[in-house]
Write a structure and sequence with these properties.
The complex is a heterodimer of chains A (222) and B (223). Chain A has 222 residues and is α+β, with helices and mostly antiparallel strands. In chain A, a hairpin with a 2-residue loop joins strand 3 and strand 4. Helix content of chain B is 59%, strand content 8%. Chain B has 10 helices and 4 strands; from the N terminus they run βαβαββαααααααα. Classes of the chains: A alpha+beta (222), B alpha+beta (223). Chains A and B meet through strand 4, helix 3 and helix 4 of A and strand 4, helix 3 and helix 4 of B.
Chain lengths: 222, 223
Amino acid sequence: MAEEEVKLFGTWGSPFSRRIEVALKLKGVQYEYIEEDLTNKSPALLNYNPVNKQIPVLVHNGKPVAESFVIMEYIDETWKHNPILPADPYERAMARFWAKYIDEKFWPAAKKTVVAKGEEQKGAIDEIQQQMKNLEGELKEKKFFGGESLGFLDIAANIIIWLVVAQEALGMDQILNEEKLPVLHGWLHRLLDDAVFKECVPPKERHLDFFKVKFGSSIASK
Amino acid sequence: MGEEVKLFRTWSSPFALRIVWALRIKGIEYETIFEDISNKSPSLLQYNPVHRKVPVLLHNGRPIAESLVILEYIDETWKQAPLLPVDPHERAMARFWAKFGDDKILGSIWSVFIKQGKEQEEAMVPAMENLKFLEGELKGKKFFGGETIGFVDLALGWLANLIGLLEEIVGLKVVDGEKLPLLSAWMQDFGDAPIIKDNWPARDGMILKFQALRDATIAAASK
């Protein structure tokens, strides 16, 4: 088999590049990781992603792919063992629908819960709670969104961990608590326990410090 | 085997049009349900409770929402006249450009049309930058999909109709044949393709709709 060259441009704190690390590790694909400084982007990154100039970028045998869900689909289609997406077209559509929901609805609302104040923050918290209830509806009795093992949507939902850590860093009450969201709460702990997944979250202390520094001045008054 | 395919759409939604085109390209029989956005049907709310939007495709009773998700579902379910290419890297590029269209092109073009004077000039800069990326992607190709219409053409197809309408309403040329020759040619070729041409929404209705939308946006902004 021809030698494969796989590179991943990412940052240690980005949920989006961490998604790619999970996907590659689940498939046992060897890759070179390049940590980017987003305040001083490398010529290589700008060359491989001239349109958005963002991480993550996967470079496979010299050919770049950008946008985390696009990269995940590419990985699934290129290395076909341990599939990330289900086989059935309808289930694939559901995974893609909810992944899109996470990036387009959950992510902006999550940021708001941490950054906004007063009424705006309360509104964002209510919104996120409803969104997580919607996700619970998709998870139902399953161990993971992907079924018995991690799948596309579990990887996409890694952002939930970022929210949990940010709230911890700022001393906020956890929105994702066992009382209000028992199904998702259980899922989160199984996710963090997974052998592959847990290698792909930022180191806890460093992550907490990052959020304290970044958002510390906007701690909500209780 | 009895297939039941229904499409919930509005007369003017560019996102729903993508699905009309895809179903027609693949020769799939389907029933259309036109929605009135100001008075959404119980069915729509039942089938898309999360977003309550069109388009929604119903296949044998199971609903799918989000137009690009629906396009992928259609391509995977009905394998004739494929919309996405075979090669994984080319598929990734197609998905990338479709997302770019929705994330960047749509917003930056709309900004140009709802702003005025200096603000409009400033809005032209990112809009042109984004359009130039599309121009680059058309090099050596008739359609984004190559010789035939594909996934990206359907995703960006709204440009071929809406841009001309907005240019007329505002009196400003955005896709200039000199500055963006390939994109101009594509708008013509795509817009004239048989299935596409037959399905554009009524021109007069579109002009009225977007004129009203623009006026309302400008009025709200100046408060």
